[in-house]
Design a protein that fits this description.
This protein is α/β, with parallel strands linked by helices. Helices cover about 30% and strands about 25% of the residues. It is built from 14 helices and 23 strands. It starts with a strand and ends with a helix.
Length: about 550
């Protein structure tokens, strides 16, 4: 295969026109082109008068080796595409798993990390048992809609917990900074397409599925995994682990008020970034953990039409809803940046604990909502957690200091909880929001202005300084004029801030070794919740890596 970079095409070009341009660049006749594939397509909007698509293509041509020897075009090289082969990557070579005397592996969590790990384990014939504290996605969607409508929260099935994980109620972004040396990312995207995602996610520079499409994909993957031998146990919560001589011997879980004991020597911990009670249980059981930096802040909303015009100028009507990315370093040294930007989306109540409130962003596949929203967040560190504990005494003993001087592993959890409790009180159980102009002037909002908020869940005007540390609010306010210089009109006094955004990533890292095992042998911390991913695709990739590690372990033990 030959890789062709920097193929520039008009916005309204067809596949046939793309093929003709490819033949022109390669300087070959159509008969020599055996086929081609779009590897990447991005929008180049740097010049308002020349907004176009830029493609990267892989082509198969006759006489490839000779062509490359004669080629002098630096944009034409040998393709580096790698196809992921699960059995080869996992070291499986003709092994008959059915002869095994070892117990079945258990996967805790059915977010992208757990789902992909279980899916590949099922393909390999290992018949995993999947424990998911929430409902399967069809029932979960109904429970979430009920919560948004009434405010009645189910602590086990909500925006954070249930089949598909937290990403199920998001924009469904699939871009990642992870390098795809082994083809795992491509394998993730191809799996999504196989189960109903649009093919453009295979080549879009910023692929996304949307919450509506992702739900269908997740259900399809689960049904196929079950057909291959996986067992999914919904509304089943991991409550304990048993170990002997430093190695896992079994797990306990609860379903319908009844405890179930499962004998196993393999547990994949794909519990997600909000499984705070599970973090506490695992910490008490002796798993080694560390407090991890993350970021906190608010959601900001603008009208999507404004964002698209600002980004694409006169071409706005020809392109999908525009996104943006803004960053700034405040005078206090803290990074302030946009995160999880949702074009044409909604700010959603993403709470998972009674008496606490957190928000997130969500878009459908069409991204056809009235507003654009994004998190505006500020970095916080383990020193902040411990410092707040010493200063305020509000986080309890879990936020205390170790003898080494490092923050307690669960300090970030308690920091999140404290801010979410403040948000719940400030909004009287509803999403608290404030106009940028009011926050800047130091006054409480009484309602919205020209920009009408798009909320999933009940909301009310408030003062966000009552929810977040002063340095977080001050850093965001300092950054807004800089963001306005990047996107003229961004610092609109009617822009709507909603709080609080606390679930940007896991506040905990469950330490694992080179075998991807925790301090208890047989337990594999996995995905975003364990601190090894940051989004749907990277979590799915980590799930695949853990699948490989589990298979290698079984091979070494004679399975």
């Amino acid at each position: 295969m030959i890789r062709i970079n920097q193929v520039k095409m008009p916005l309204n070009s067809t596949v046939q026109e793309l093929e003709r341009e490819l033949l022109r660049i390669l300087r070959i006749k159509k008969e020599r082109l055996l086929g081609f594939e779009i590897i990447k397509r991005s929008i180049d909007a740097r010049k308002a008068e020349d907004i176009h698509y830029t493609y990267t293509l892989d082509a198969e041509i006759s006489g490839e080796s000779g062509y490359l020897e004669r080629n002098r075009n630096r944009n034409i090289t040998k393709s580096t595409a790698v196809e992921y082969r699960p059995r080869e990557a996992a070291g499986i070579s003709g092994t008959d798993w059915a002869d095994s005397k070892r117990p079945r592996p258990v996967v805790c969590g059915s977010g992208p990390a757990g789902l992909f790990c279980a899916f590949f384990l099922a393909q390999a014939g290992l018949n995993p048992i999947v424990l998911e504290r929430g409902s399967q996605v069809e029932q979960r969607a109904k429970a979430v809609e009920h919560f948004w409508r009434t405010g009645e929260l189910d602590p086990e099935t909500n925006v954070q917990f249930g089949e598909g994980g937290a990403g199920t109620f998001s924009d469904g972004k699939l871009n990642t900074a992870v390098k795809d040396t082994f083809g795992r990312i491509r394998a993730v995207l191809k799996t999504f397409v196989k189960f109903g995602a649009p093919e453009d996610i295979l080549y879009s520079s910023k692929p996304h599925i949307g919450t509506d499409c992702l739900r269908q994909v997740v259900a399809g993957m689960r049904r196929e995994a079950v057909r291959l031998g996986a067992e999914f146990c919904f509304e089943t919560k991991l409550t304990g682990i048993a170990a002997g001589r430093g190695a896992l011997t079994g797990v306990s879980c609860m379903h319908g008020g009844k405890e179930r004991l499962i004998e196993t020597d393999t547990l994949v911990l794909a519990i997600g970034h909000s499984a705070r009670d599970t973090f506490e249980m695992l910490y008490k059981k002796g798993l080694r953990m560390e407090a991890k930096p993350f970021a906190v802040g608010v959601r900001v909303e603008h009208e999507q039409e404004f964002i698209s015009r600002a980004q694409y100028k006169t071409a706005a009507g020809l392109l999908p809803a525009a996104d943006y990315k803004v960053t700034y370093t405040a005078k206090n040294g803290r990074g302030v940046y946009s995160f999880c930007m949702c074009p044409g989306g909604y700010v959603v109540d993403a709470s998972s604990e009674q008496g606490r409130l957190a928000v997130n962003g969500m878009s459908n596949r069409a991204r056809d909502g009235r507003n654009a929203n994004s998190a505006l967040i500020v970095t916080v560190t383990a020193e902040d957690f411990a410092g707040a504990a010493r200063k305020n005494g509000i986080f309890g003993e879990t936020a205390g200091m170790h003898m080494s001087g490092a923050a307690h592993p669960l300090a970030g959890v308690e920091f999140q909880r404290h801010c979410e409790e403040l948000a719940y009180r400030t909004g009287q159980g509803k999403i608290p929001y404030q106009l940028y102009g009011d926050l800047l002037a130091g006054r409480r909002s009484e309602g919205y202005g020209r920009i009408r908020p798009e909320h999933k869940g009940r909301s009310m005007p408030a003062d966000l300084r009552e929810c977040l540390p002063g340095h977080v609010i001050d850093s965001i306010l300092e950054a807004m004029p800089a963001f306005d210089r990047m996107i003229r009109g961004f610092a609109d006094e009617d822009a709507v801030f909603s709080g609080v955004e606390m679930r940007t990533s896991s506040p905990v890292r469950i330490v694992r070794d080179e075998r991807l095992m925790s301090s208890v042998a047989g337990i594999y911390p996995c995905g975003e919740g364990a601190g090894y991913a940051g989004g749907i695709t990277s979590a799915a990739v980590d799930g695949i890596k853990v699948f490989e590690a589990v298979c290698r372990s079984f091979c070494r033990n004679g399975r």
